[in-house]
Amino acid sequence: MSDLASARPARRPARRPAPTAGELRNDVWLAGALFVAAVISTALGSVAGVYGDDANAGMQWALLYSLGLTAPLAVRRRFPAVVVLAIALVFFAGVTFRIPDLYVSNIAMFIAMYTVGAWVDDRRRAMWVRVGVIVAMFVWLIVTMFQAAIDPSDEALSQAGLFSPFAAMLLIQLLVNAGFFGGAYYMGDRAYAAAMSRAALEERTHELEREREVTAAQAVALDRVRIARELHDVVAHHVSAMGVQAGAARAVLDRDPDAARGALRGVEASARSALVELRQLLETLRTSGGDAEGGSTVHLSALADLVAHANDNGLPTTLTIVGDAVHLPELVQVNVYRVAQEALTNARRHGGPDAAADVRLRYAPDAVELEVVNSGRAVAAPMRPGLGLVGMRERAAASGGELKAAPRARGGFLVRLRVPLAVPAEAVGA
Q1: Is the per-residue pLDDT at 178 higher than 60?
Q2: pLDDT attached to residue 6
Q3: At what angle do helices 123-149 and 165-252 cross, to 10 degrees?
């Protein structure tokens, strides 16, 4: 089950997980730090004469520009599209009115563009918002370049020659802006894809955890059923025999003390056998899974002893083996033995004092078959099968076989188990 689960691709979530409280706090700290940096950058740019005499050097304008440029970043993860549009407008206004800042405005613009790509779940909307801002920026850049080209001022760069200093400066501006906006666009998309992949991985991890818990619960339930089935088979078989022997001892206690003592010895032997099997069962259950495939210590080779035990406890039973014995998996051997044991136990309990049983084990080329037929009272099929019949059907299913259990028309009961073999019997050594 886990292999199939790991083979399935992780389902991509519909939305990126919302920003955490820590991420939102970091945005506020980022906006504050960039505000201080913008004020310092504007002041230093004014002193350095970035725009010459045309610079708007008023400190009030520097503070207003710095606030408008950085304050929206405090809510950039909550309203990415609104933030990038607001910063773009402030950026346009700052350059138009010659606010002497060359660095923090670019950083703020890059972060805003990146945030749209990284946090907007509507990818079509994210694309159009960024494309709109980029187109507006390049249109504005081309307009300013045209204005510079027709500027007759002597302070402008020389335009003489095919590759003049003026043309070189224009090309540099175009390349820098293309790399700037292209980088913000690409990195935002990559960040969104990485976040969605992490979210899908986390969701898949949670699903695997839930599947692991369900699998563990199922394994525990199956172990409980297996233990209950083994205990039922061991206890029911021996207690049934002890009941028959105790009843026989009580019936002959006064007139034949020797026979009563023999019956009581049978009770003692059955009790000892039950304790031995229970101890072996507990030891097997404590053994690692690789050492106890069938979860039991009985094998099909003990079928003759089982028939002898039935004869000793008041149920005349014959055993017939048809065909040459083949090697069977331990699980199949245990299940066939337990089905025979349960069938004989039911025959002794329900068949009456005159009941007799016949056990037939057939080794066919493609299957092994067990048939247990008992005479005696005709027992109607119960409306609700008992634990014995349920256990036999579970064992048949666990071995990949089929079980038929039904009363016979002329009295008694029939149990037939057929287990297919994985390979033909001739190809397997005895």
Answers
A1: yes
A2: 42
A3: 170
